[in-house]
Amino acid sequence: METFKKIKANKKWIIFFAALAILIVAGLFYFKARNLEDFNPLIKEKLQDLVSNGSDGFYQLTYDSLKSDVYGGTVILKNVHVFPDSARLLHLDSIHMKPADIFDLSLTTLAIDGLDFTDFLSNKKIDLKIIYINNPTLEIFHEKNDSLKNKKDTASIQTVYQRISTVLNRFSLQKLAIKNMEVIHHNYISDEKESTTRFDKVNMQFEDLLIDSLTQYDSTRFMYAKNAAITLGKFKFPTADSLYTISMDSIYINAANKTVNIDTFAFTPRNGKDAFVAKMPYLKERYSVGFEHVSLNNIDWWGFVSNEGFSAKNMILKNGKLQIYADRNLPPFPKSKVGNYPHQILMKIKLPVSLDSVIISDLDLTYEENNPDSKLQGKVFFNNINGFIANINNNPQAAASPVMKIKASSDLMDAGKINAEFLFNLNETKSGAFSISGNMGSMDAKKLDPVTQPLGLFKIDDGTVKSLSFDLKGNDHNCSGQFTFLYNDLHIEILKKGNDDGEQSKKGFLSFIANTFIIKKSNPGNNGDVRTVTASAERDIHKSFFNLIWKTLLDGFKQTIK
What we know:
It is a single chain. The protein has helices at residues 2-34, 40-54, 86-94, 117-121, 146-151, 160-164, 273-279, 301-305, 342-348, 449-456, 508-518, 545-561, and strands at residues 59-62, 65-69, 74-84, 101-113, 125-134, 137-143, 170-188, 194-211, 225-232, 235-238, 244-254, 259-269, 286-297, 310-327, 353-371, 376-393, 403-412, 416-425, 434-440, 443-444, 458-474, 478-494, 532-538. The chain is of the alpha+beta class and 562 residues long. Among the domains are: 30-233, no CATH class; 234-334, no CATH class. The chain is elongated and about 100 Å long. The protein starts with a helix and ends with a helix.
């Protein structure tokens, strides 16, 4: 009898647990079959609250369908659209507080894995494994808003965490993968003009992303992520003046390593030389720049993303070409160029800039000029330029040194080795104070004919350059300093102006007079004394910094040989 009672009692528990197991399994199958349809309105409300609160009510979220699986912890959204609230936009515009950048994001599918629905719906936290976003389109509308800049109180700007904290205490994500995103940037320069830039095949991967009270100010993270990698495929876009195109083959950003690597950067004119000149009302140099590789290291992402400035350890430029062309048939630039020396331009940049160094490796530079007198194009080129620019900083008080230095060495005309150093005092930009020193080794003087014949109207028949050295100081108005040019057996031919075909004939008598009575054939002369002169030049305010340097060196050359 006792045994029967035990069996009966055990049977009750067996039936209870069996019923409970059936209920749980049935519930799971119900949730899986129903795809949480009963909870979808709650999920939708939660997602929309997160987007709205995270953007201070500026953005809205819509989607066509939501498929969720409580058993698998997955959510799939179809045809998602995040866009600005039109009423909110009009209100902010009316009080001159409309953001300078407005975003519009659309995507066909957003997949979320690892969602704990209990936490998600109870306003506690969201901890996810993976979010996949494929083929999204992000449009950015940028319009300069000076009134917003003047009114904005940086102390009142909330972090993303502070904005979402009313509905969420914590958000974490192990991995966010965005594949093949198209980014379209609309830049409204004025009410009438718009510039559009497209970035295709943008891929992003963020790892260990965490938004909470501790990470909202964590400068070791990039957009709240411990690790982030962003790659962009080929793209190009025109400059604001439509004269040039900027293009890059690929960009790779590694946020964890604080690096950016760019392959094949190019800044190229959109028109050939003649077409470029035809567009110009006055003389303006035409530039073409290209580098096989550009890299930036140790970037301060936190300051850059928060618009506090740009700071990096160094920039490396490898295997480049820089070509400059000027046509002197055009009238000179009508306005003053005073205030446009390199360090003065740096100080005009409103965004704080701090770059320890720019390292240049294997750059070829060519300057070509069309001379109306000779009807020829003169060309000077520097090969294998290697050097650096140190202390690029528009806050001299925060810099280790108040001097920006440029130092480089190269081969001149494939013949002579030349070294130069520029020093720009960042505390004296109002006067434009600078200094430049340099030296050059021996070379065959006849190698300079491509410069002297079209631009100087004389040809070097013979001569050897032994060395050249100079030490100059200048400012906004003039430049002067010591100049020493050592050479042997100089013999020149003075040329007439070129005809319409660019042919030049020599002035025989003047050449004879110059070589016999005017030109000193060597330095040092027969007495062994070295002639060192004080070269000087007054600045033409309509011309560039390098024109002043060239005029000063030319004055030293003329004084030495006469």
